[in-house]
Specification:
The complex is a heterodimer of chains A (about 500) and B (about 210). Chain A is mostly helical. In chain A, about 70% of the residues lie in helices and about 0% in strands. A two-stranded antiparallel ribbon of chain B has the order 1-2. In chain B, strands 3-4 form a two-stranded antiparallel sheet. Classes of the chains: A mainly alpha (about 500), B mainly alpha (about 210).
Chain lengths: ~500, ~210
């Protein structure tokens, strides 16, 4: 034996044998030396039986060698090996089946680590889709079904990515949706604890907002039908509640902005209240950006406070690098500042971060690249990207690519094409609205549709079979905050070409 | 260090047992003498078997890596099955699966009579991960086995053919890893490294 044990055992045995022989040979040292010499020459004692001698070139005596060659393999080992191999084979199949979904999760984790929350969300959400398609392929093979499921841990990650993209109220609604669909047994795990933090936050929001609103309800919900002149009056009355008990500064300012916006008071007034809301949120150390950042940045840009808008954009972009709204607003600032090289780098970076096959990001990438191309007066490229985007996404993704194409037609004086595009935009908005999504109906979209329809009526082929649609589009723009500017565009006081080649290169 | 080694072998006894089993089978294939004894025991060769050393370079290599290869294959399948599901599919102890999605109607009726209506796959993954890690903790040979191969492949003993030398040279990285792994295993460090890795994976990198 050559193992650790065998390295000491033979020596002891040999020594014992030698001692015996030495005694037998009248304890003479010379005889013992002779015996050792013999052993070294090959005649050792078998280390296994300790009786017989080992012949030269062998480790054991003949009979032990034969016995040790036939040691029994235990049945436990055989059964273990067979079961182990069968189970490993099953595991291998499951690993192959879940490899793609797992890869989606890894991609989601990578995106989440770089605050690319939309990509992260898309990747996490794709896991369940992949699994259901695998289950469909497997059909009646039920054996693998229990192992092709998404767990609460992944739902937690989906929730995390959503909570980074939306305000606490929307996040909580999603969390609530998870719980409703999870039969309540989730209520003891980590996800529940995470969601509970949001539910506490939402409860606080509800309480603060509810108390503030209740205090102001007499002013806001009066019996008298509001008229335009009443806007400022409301705001002044509301201001008198500031600092009173149960009136939260942030929500008071936010409601004042809401009133100012509803009454279409001037931008300065609206900005004043969002400024106050922003300061109140910072003072309360609450991240309520998601409630107001988009109009706030727009108003800051309109007021020429570009540094503040830039700072806010950069801050929000760090939190979520997949946020298209923020990216589009930052791009607008670059364009207004004339920093087209910087704008190009910015779009490149955004495109790179969102370079994925997922619909929403690709759509955003197209939009930003089209805006940039228009800003660089490269209308051929802009048009090419629009056509490419439209053929790729159709009516999916939103109305922005169509709107960009409409602006190009307006710039080129192709009013018939612009009107046709406006009709398509209207269809997209209808589809979105029927799916419960009204986010596409923005002032920018309405203004573009309005100008296109008016120009079509004025310079195009006159009213056509689409009279109703035309009137609908025109009427939907009435009372928009940009109505006056657009009226100037229609009347020719403001040149549309000039509007589309200066400042933010947009109608509003 | 021996105590740590013995403790690690007892904790990872399924892997240690299987490792010794595969060694036994390899010895049978290579016609090497094996001393009978328990596969998992309280000495520094626990999880291995007492056997005579291989006489040729090829058989020494097979003795050093063959049993580990079997453990590695089975272990990595079991480990990944559990690890991927828990880590990337987000399976938690609270996730349950209706048993009807997994079995046929007859078995379902039988399970229902036993009162079994749902299963918690997390615990299956946990067991699979434990078995996988225990097998992977036992992929490396005894130091004597890899040293035996090392002395034959890279030592000065005897004349070697050009082909054998070339194969040995190509094999150097794998042999080096095996030798390092055998050293770490003999000191019980391999087990500690696995524990540290798993703790980090499910805490810091989660």
């Amino acid at each position: 034996m050559s193992k650790r044990k065998s390295s000491s055992k033979p020596e002891i045995i040999e020594e014992a044998e030698v001692t015996e022989e030495v005694e037998e040979m009248e304890e003479t040292e010379n005889a013992a030396e002779e015996l050792f010499e013999e052993a070294e020459e090959g005649e050792r004692i078998c280390p296994h039986c300790g009786v017989k001698t080992v012949s030269y070139g062998h480790e054991f005596c003949y009979s032990c060698e034969k016995e040790l060659l036939h040691t029994k393999v235990p049945y436990g080992g055989i059964i273990g090996a067979l079961v182990g191999m069968a189970v490993s084979f099953f595991c291998c199949i499951v690993i192959i089946l879940i490899s793609v979904p797992c890869l989606q999760t890894v991609k989601g984790n990578v995106s989440a680590s770089s605050n690319n929350w939309l990509t992260a969300y898309n990747n996490y959400a794709a896991v369940e889709e992949s699994l259901s398609s695998i289950t469909d392929i497997l059909g009646d093979v039920k054996l693998f079904n229990p192992y092709l499921k998404v767990g609460c841990g992944l739902q937690g990650r989906i929730f995390e990515s959503i909570s980074h993209m939306h305000n606490p109220v929307t996040s909580y609604q999603y969390a609530d949706y998870i719980f409703v669909n999870s039969q309540g047994y989730l209520k003891h795990n980590k996800l529940y604890n995470e969601c509970k933090e949001y539910s506490d936050e939402v409860n606080l929001i509800n309480e603060q907002f509810g108390n503030t609103f209740e205090n102001l309800s007499d002013i806001i919900q009066g019996d008298v039908a509001p008229t335009d002149s009443m806007g400022q009056e409301y705001l002044d009355k509301m201001e008198s509640f500031r600092g009173k008990e149960n009136v939260n500064d942030f929500w008071l300012s936010f409601l004042q902005y809401d009133i100012a916006s509803g009454f279409m008071l001037n931008n300065e007034t609206q900005l004043k209240y969002l400024d106050a809301a922003h300061k109140a949120a910072q003072k309360q150390k609450k991240e309520y950006y998601s409630f107001y950042y988009s109009p706030y940045i727009d108003l800051l840009i309109d007021a020429g406070r570009l540094d503040e808008a830039t700072k806010l954009c950069d801050e929000l972009y760090k939190k979520d690098i997949s946020n298209y709204d923020v990216a589009a607003q930052r791009l607008k600032i670059y364009i207004i500042n004339g920093e087209l090289d910087e704008a190009e780098k910015y779009v490149e970076k955004f495109t790179e971060n969102n370079l994925t096959l997922e619909l929403e990001q690709s759509y955003s990438n197209y939009c930003l690249n089209i805006i940039l191309a228009r800003a660089n007066s490269n209308y051929t490229l802009a048009k090419q990207l629009c056509e490419e985007g439209i053929s790729k996404f159709g009516y999916n993704g939103g109305p922005e690519i169509h709107r960009q194409l409409l602006l190009i037609y307006l710039y080129e004086g192709k009013y018939v094409e612009a009107y046709d595009t406006a009709i398509e935009i209207d269809e997209i908005l209808n589809i979105m609205y029927m799916n419960g999504n009204s986010s596409g109906i923005t002032d920018e979209v309405l203004a573009s549709e309005y100008v296109a329809t008016e120009f079509y009526a004025k310079y195009g082929n006159g009213k056509s079979a689409n009279d109703d649609a035309l009137e609908d589009m025109q009427s939907s723009f009435v009372d928009s905050k940009s109505e006056k500017l657009m009226a100037d565009v229609i009347s020719g006081k403001v040149d549309v070409k000039k509007l589309l080649t200066e400042g933010g290169r947009d109608l509003i | 260090m021996t105590i740590l080694y013995i403790i690690s072998k007892y904790i990872c006894f399924p892997g240690a047992y299987m490792r010794a089993f595969w060694e036994h089978i390899t010895c049978k294939i290579l016609m090497l003498q094996v001393e009978p004894g328990k596969y998992v025991r309280r000495d520094e060769a626990s999880g291995h078997i007492e056997h005579s050393l291989a006489k040729t370079q090829w058989s020494a290599w097979l003795m050093a890596t063959g049993p580990g290869f079997m453990n590695y294959n089975m272990g990595s399948a079991l480990f990944l099955f559990g690890f991927l599901s828990i880590k990337y599919m987000g399976i938690t102890p609270w996730d349950k699966v209706d048993i009807s999605v997994a079995v046929g109607n007859k078995l379902l009726q039988f399970l229902h009579t036993l009162g079994i209506e749902s299963m918690y796959p997390f615990y299956i993954y946990l067991i699979a991960m434990y078995l996988g890690v225990s097998l992977l903790c036992n992929v490396f040979p005894l130091t004597e086995d890899i040293i035996n191969y090392w002395s034959m492949a890279y030592g000065p003993l005897g004349k070697k053919s050009v082909a054998k030398s070339a194969i040995a040279k190509l094999n150097l990285p794998l042999a080096g890893i095996t030798r390092l792994g055998a050293f770490l295993d003999a000191k019980g460090i391999l087990f500690i490294l696995w524990v540290v890795y798993l703790v980090l994976e499910f805490t810091v990198f989660m």
